[in-house]
Amino acid sequence: LGVAELVGGEWKAAPLPPLNPPGNWTSATLIETRTGEILVSTGLEMIARTAEGWVKQPPQIDASYGMALAADGAIFACIRLEPSRRAFARWSGGEWKRLSAGFSVPSGHLEDVAEAPDGSIWAVGHGLVTCWRRRSGEWTEFAGVGLPKLVDSEGAAWFLNPSAAADQPSHLARRHAGKWMMAEGPWIGLEQAPGGVVWGVKSKSLVRW
Fold first, then answer.
1. How far apart are the two ends of the chain, measured CA to CA in Å?
2. 144 — phi, psi (to 5°)?
3. Residues 88 and 78: beta-carbon distance below 8 Å
4. For the residues 45-64, what does the mean pLDDT come to?
5. Region at 70 (left for phi over 0; alpha for psi -120 to 50; beta for the rest)
6. pLDDT of 184-195, one tens digit each?
């Protein structure tokens, strides 16, 4: 089993790079992206046909049994968390990135993943039909904001990148209603009082919000 290309009116075996392990071709999926790239997944391996030929991607988390090409060009699959649990994920930057909470798969594997007209992604298996409404449930990564420390009385999330020493720069961040507030340090700590007041701790002073 493998991939064939139609060349000059004849089907010929595609010169795929060696797979290790060989792969489960019963769960293989082939899709063409909007940019004309061909992606072939065996579940544990992803191979891309680019202008340079067939290229194997770095080792992947188990995403067996189907990929879905959405109308907006995004590529989705269900990655394995545990033997009987999966989560929806998107292909981005050469890897699968988890986007949803985990869900139970009683049989241990899925049969297919597809997009509905409203943009939601569906997974189907033995005794399982589950839907992820991605328009309202997608994770967004915020890099460089520090460690999450607390949620205040207004529902704002606070993050702190503490100083390793009193004279080293640092910052804290607050996110509320889709907006960020950043404050430069050096900060040593961040605490919330019982009444809801948030205190930023410096080496020789306090700041109250």
1. 64
2. 75, 15
3. yes
4. 86
5. beta
6. 878 888 899 988
What's the gap between Cα 208 and its chain centre?
36
Kindly state the tokens that stand for 209: 């919000």
Neighbours of 164 (CB within 10 A): 8
How far is the C-alpha of 96 from the C-alpha of 9, rounded, in Å?
Answer: 35
- So what's the pLDDT on residue 164? 56
User: Counting Cβ atoms within 10 Å, is residue 42 exposed (0-12), middle (13-18) or buried (19+)?
Assistant: buried
Give 1-43 pLDDT, tens digit per residue.
Answer: 678 888 889 999 888 888 766 556 677 888 998 888 899 888 8
